[in-house]
Amino acid sequence: MRTAAIILTVLAACGTESPSDDVTGPFTGPIQRFVVDELVVPNTQPAARDAGLDLDGNGVIDNQGGSVLAALYLIDDGAADPADQIASGALASFVLVQADDPIDDDTVAVTYLGRDGAAATVVGGKLVGGVFHTNALATTRVPGAALLRVPAFADVDPIDLPTAALAIELAPDGRGGYGGIVGAGLRVDELRPLAADAMLRMVEFDPQRHLSFFNQANRDLDGTLTIDEILQNTSFQQLLIGDVDLFDGDAFAPNRDRDDESISLGYRIHLRPCPTGNCALGTPRFTCLDRALDGDETAIDCGGASGECARCPAAAHCTADTDCQTAHCQPDGTCAAPTCSDGIQDGFESGVDTGGGC
Q1: What does DSSP assign to residue 353?
Q2: Distances from the Cα of 288 to the Cαs of 154, 156, 307, in angstroms?
Q3: Which of 31, 87, 119, 184 has the greatest count of CB atoms below 10 A from its CB?
Q4: Beta bridge mates, 273
Q5: Cβ-based neighbours of 23, under 8 Å, separated by 6 or more
Q6: 68-79 b/e with 16+ CB inside 10 Å = b?
Q7: What is the pLDDT of residues 253-276, one digit of tens each?
Q8: For residues 211 and 200, what is the distance between their CA atoms, to the nearest angstrom?
């Protein structure tokens, strides 16, 4: 995978000459571990601007990915409040900060772990008055690398995004933690399949909510939707267009004169000290949107005798007909697939047993 090659290039670059203001180590001092107890993805265009960083050094805030997320919220397809996913443990990210002095230190390492134990390389920088200033991606030759776990689409798990162009800004909160911004550049050709897979799972979870997109993307009119059909959809392609140029082939080489092959992404985080375990676990406010199997749900975020959660899609676990969108829980304990003779408007049907392949 190209991302693996890029990360190897990043690691190899540690032995090359760097600009004088590029913090490359050696990093010393104790390592403090923090849990991401708040993660705020942009849900409006102003929020996207506020959560971005200037990744390519042209004096303009970059956050095309944040703008895409804001657009999803505008059409009610954005992920539910990440706070519930953090409380349930479905979204558990951590940050390590290594410094000799937590206030002023010229050689500081920050490591972002989208999942505990995930592979990552440090983001170098300085602490000045307690504020962490990251190596600028426009000039650094040793950019950070990490797995970012980001809530994006409704009704699906956060997307795991491997990136080898990472910058982090942190400011102390006065309580031993930090507030900050994560900024990253994601290769368009690597992001699109990940986004298409998440979009397909969102559409399949609640087909009736996404009839318009299905009718637009179902090129062969066979009543089913595939990742390839989403990737070939013009609207989807226009949604994910590069806005920054950070790589030359597999090598990290920011340049504003070549084609933009990467999409910038920025979001806000808050860090709480957490030496071990997951200190952000708690009680979700709404268990039907926390991406965990809890409450009386029969499958993640669906089903249940209380009727509080959405009905479950085909193949999801069920215990009663009322758990299923098709109103049919099969003897094997899974929701039946929609048919063209079940007397219900379900699946991708545009009417009762009509349209959507019927």
Answers
A1: T
A2: 12, 12, 10
A3: 184
A4: 34
A5: 106, 107, 108, 124, 125, 126, 135
A6: bbbbbbeeebbb
A7: 887 666 788 999 999 999 999 999
A8: 12
